[in-house]
């Protein structure tokens, strides 16, 4: 049973396929999740039942010099990212 208010619930019902999610704990990104085209994803079991405090969207900018990547999009790539902030509370 998926509990409402948990990270697992949020990823299952509040995201869409092909979404990049950054999971934040205490202000730091501690993991990322990619929601694939079939709405499938993997998340560490210790995070599944953590309560979601808030979320926001931000664009990540990747520059060719900052990382090695072969692409045809020019020197800069912008990727939308869904930041999800967790509380230390576990939903039972």
Task: Characterise the protein shown here.
The protein is mainly β and 92 residues long. It has one domain. Helices cover 8% and strands 46% of the residues. The chain contains 1 helix and 4 strands. It has one helix at residues 7-13; strands spanning 20-25, 28-34, 50-63, 76-90. A 4-stranded mixed beta sheet has the order 2-1-4-3, covered by helices on one side. A hairpin with a 2-residue loop joins strand 1 and strand 2 (28-34). The chain is globular, with a radius of gyration of 15 Å. The mean pLDDT is 86.
Largest sheet: 4 strands, mixed
General form? globular
Share in β-strands: over 45%
Count every helix, treating DSSP H or I runs of 4 or more residues as helices.
1
* SSE class: mainly beta
Strand order of the largest sheet: 2-1-4-3
Helix content range of the residues, please?
Answer: under 10%
Strand tally: 4
Rg, Å, rounded: 15 Å
Notable characteristics:
globular, 92 residues, mainly beta
What is the fold's blueprint, element by element?
Elements: H1 7-13, E1 20-25, E2 28-34, E3 50-63, E4 76-90
Parallel strand pairs: 1-4
Antiparallel strand pairs: 1-2, 3-4
Summary, kept brief:
The chain starts with 6 loop residues before the first helix and ends with a strand. The chain is 8% helix and 46% strand.
């Amino acid at each position: 049973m998926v509990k409402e208010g948990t990270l697992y619930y949020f990823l299952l019902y509040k995201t869409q396929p092909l979404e990049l999610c950054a999971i934040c704990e205490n202000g730091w990104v501690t993991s990322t999740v990619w929601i694939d085209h079939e709405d499938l994803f993997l998340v560490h079991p210790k995070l599944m039942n953590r309560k979601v405090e808030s979320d926001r969207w931000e664009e990540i900018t990747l520059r060719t010099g900052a990382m090695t990547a072969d692409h045809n999009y020019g020197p800069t790539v912008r990727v939308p990212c869904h930041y999800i902030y967790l509380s230390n509370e576990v939903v039972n």
